[in-house]
Write a structure and sequence with these properties.
alpha/beta; Arc Repressor Mutant, subunit A; 14 strands; 3 domains; 9-stranded mixed sheet; 17% strand; Rossmann fold; 48% helix; Trna Endonuclease, Chain: A, domain 1; 5-stranded parallel sheet
């Protein structure tokens, strides 16, 4: 099995909590990771597994074996039983591992029945930390889904298109997006076209013949299914006027490239949206690195009315980080000067210009480097801060 960075975090949370919910998009590897941990496995979407779990429930609750329940949000009656079992012995840890593909449905049951009893871990598709820097181009092109072509074979882009089509036909309607599949796929293609731009629901709605309220509701479902990231604008005390609309990204670069019609790495680099897909890819790598290590942060971006911008602002490891992403191998002094000025506006103490530069350059608080180097230095900073 391919190494997953989140495995240690799941184990740690199981040592600390009676139950853990491992959430993430479909086909991201949740089931594979959970099976590697051992325990009794049940799929709540399969009636036969529900019956097996129901019959074995008294024995499983009394035993010491980890109980793994896949697609837990599809069986609402399960959650009161989990609460009763946990409350009967609150000192026991690591009893239940729940897997879920859509956050709102699962979180609704969690808040109603398991608040204070369950820890959350998000599993993303494969990260650069997991496949290695040698596979950077393939990971950016194909995205991180295990079957999407990043590991081996030629799944891209057919796998990505089939994946989105099946979600639009079956899963998304069940999860609260009532549109017919052709309309959902049109919306996804439009999201690929505005990937990395400020969200304008009225404009998208007009193109689809929908109200902006409806489009916003659809986006909520896509975000809850881990397909879309809404990056909120940084709100702080600043003398300059700040842009206040969120930016929207499709979270997996392979899905973006497939929707934009790319068929190979050569197609990707000449896409009109190549800079934006690189930016979104790098953002997901940074945030995935933090999430896999249990670092909670509220990511945002900064843009002022006079053009100063930071692509990603995060508070992590006792510092505020300002990241700017450029699809170039020759960033300029002007690029860093603008980053430095924008970072001052939001009070960032770490300034990182991530590009495709072949030779990284460092000072204590400022870096100009490629993405693998940025991730490596970020991991080192987090490890250093975690030391007693």
């Amino acid at each position: 099995m391919q190494r997953r960075v989140s495995t240690e975090l799941v184990r740690k949370r199981l040592r600390e909590s009676p139950a853990v919910a491992l959430v993430g998009p479909r086909q991201s590897g949740k089931t594979t990771l959970a099976r590697a941990l051992g325990g009794a496995y049940f799929d709540a979407e399969i009636e036969e597994d529900r019956l097996r779990l129901d019959l074995a429930w008294p024995r499983l609750v009394a035993g010491r074996r980890l109980v793994v329940i896949d697609e837990a949000q599809s069986w609402p009656d399960l959650f009161p039983r989990l609460r009763a079992a946990i409350d009967a012995d609150r000192t026991r840890r690591g009893r239940f591992l729940l897997l879920g593909s859509i956050s709102p449905a699962l979180m609704r049951h969690v808040t109603e029945s398991l608040a204070g009893r369950l820890a959350l871990v998000e599993l993303t598709p494969f990260l650069l930390d997991e496949v290695g820097p040698a596979h950077l181009e393939r990971l950016w092109t194909c995205g991180g889904f295990p079957d999407g072509g990043v590991l081996a074979g030629g799944g891209f882009p057919r796998w990505q298109i089939d994946y989105l089509t099946l979600l639009a036909q079956r899963d998304l309607p069940l999860w609260g997006l009532p549109a017919r599949a052709p309309l959902t796929l049109r919306l996804l293609r439009m999201l690929a076209q505005v990937h990395g731009q400020q969200w304008n629901a009225s404009e998208i709605g007009a193109s689809l013949g929908l109200s902006y309220h409806t489009v916003d509701a659809y986006l909520d479902v896509l975000a809850g299914a881990f397909l879309v990231r809404r990056l909120l604008p940084w709100h702080g005390n600043a003398r300059k006027r700040l842009v206040k609309r969120p930016k929207v990204y499709l979270r997996d670069s392979g899905l973006v490239h497939a929707l934009l019609g790319a068929r190979s790495p050569d197609d990707v680099v000449v896409l009109p949206r190549a800079g934006a897909t690189w930016e979104g890819f790098a953002i997901e790598q940074i945030l995935g690195c933090l999430a896999a290590r249990g670092v909670d942060c509220e990511p945002s971006y900064l843009r002022t009315s006079d053009g100063y911008e930071v692509d990603l602002v995060v508070d992590a490891g006792g510092a505020r980080w300002a990241f700017e992403f450029k699809l170039t191998s020759a960033p300029s002094l002007g690029d860093f000067a603008r980053l430095r000025r924008a970072a001052e506006i939001c009070g960032a103490t770490r300034r990182v210009l991530v590009s495709r530069v072949p030779r990284p350059a460092w000072s204590q608080d400022e870096w100009s480097c490629d993405l693998p180097s940025a991730l490596r230095r970020l991991r080192q900073e987090l490890a250093r801060r975690a030391q007693p």
